[in-house]
Each structure stands twice: as structure tokens, then as C-alpha cells.
Amino acid sequence: MIYCVEDDNSIRGLVIYSLNSAGFDAAGFSDGESLFAALADELPELILLDIMLPGEDGLTILKKLRNDARTARIPIIMETAKGEEYDRVIGLDAGADDYLSKPFGMMEMVSRVKALLRRTAGAGDSAVLRNGRLTLNNEEHTVLLDGERITLTLKEYELLRLFMEHLGKVYSREKLFDSVWGADTIGETRTVDVHIGTLRTKLGECGGYIETVRGVGYRMEAQP
Q1: CA gap 140, 195 in Å, rounded
Q2: Are residues 137 and 118 both part of a single domain?
């Protein structure tokens, strides 16, 4: 089951129709109150959440979902107005897994939903993580490129592990800084850019696995 929280009746109806056509069960809600009423009965696999809603806005709802143990791990895609970079960054920092900029196509929406469900189903605490030519061993604290060991600093290693544990997820610089350096650490997000740069250099050709998402931050895409 996928929930869509969208106050525009036409958009909500089209999203639900597209999800149903793609083989998903879906239900729509126009505001946070109706969403939370539904959550009391059934938890969905994923939530599509618009930022601009009557009553509580999407960011407030997102924070409530992330602060509730029952809903904290549900994958969430935020719907943002085109060009609203601030909303995207705030949403990602608050715990959104991905975002869609309006107006978005239904094929893109379904593709994002499928991709997020795939990667969240595979996320976990595996001792060994693999992506393309890279292998990261959490128990041995090592990184191999084509079987050859690469020497990384602690922060470079933690950045790489975060990316490999959540392939395809977009992280803002602020979220990366809080996750790797700690929310209470005094510093600047420019530190993230510097470490991403050195990490890419050490990964050589595989440095391209880490993509810059313009206006937002970084992500690592899954590689064959």
C-alpha cells in the first residue's frame, strides 16, 4: 500500500490511478489529519507527501512521522514546487528519502517509487557492502577497489559507508555533516565538499559513483 497526501484532487487522483496501473495498491488523502487516521489502521510501504497542504504543512507532518517509532522507517518522497530549493533541502534534512519537483510526470513518479522501494528493501546492517567495483567491509573497516585496498581517513570511510548503505538516496550537505561529524559539532558544510573531493580522488574512476545533485547535495547511484 502506498499513501499519497495531496490536496489537489486532480493530481491526487492521477497519482493513485498511475500507481494502481503500475500494480500498486494506493490510497489518497487531502491533509495530515486524514493521513494520521489511516496510519492508525494500516502502515503503508511508502508515502508521497506534498509540502503545501491545508492545516499542517508537509514538513511538519514529515517531522511527526520521523519522530514516531511506528512510522519512522517508512520511505517518504516529498512533492515540492518547481525551483523551491530551500524546501527540498529542509525536507531531506528532516528525513525525506527523495523528492519530486512539480509539475512531475507520472512515469517519473512511478519510477521514483519503485527505485526507493528497491533500495529501502535492501538497506540494512550488512557486514559487507558492494557497489560496482567497490567493496566495503564494516567488520574489517576496509575498502577494496577491484580487490585492491584503498586507504581512507575515518570521515571519508564514514561518508562512503553512508552512501553505500543507502544507494540512490540524496543527501544534503547539512545532512551529511550532521550524520558524519555530528549535529553538535562546530563546523561548516564546506567541510563536506572537501571530503567528497578527496574521497572521489582516492576512488579513482569509481569516484564518479558519487554524483552531485545540483542545489541539493550528493548521492551514490547503484552500479552493476
Answers
A1: 22
A2: no
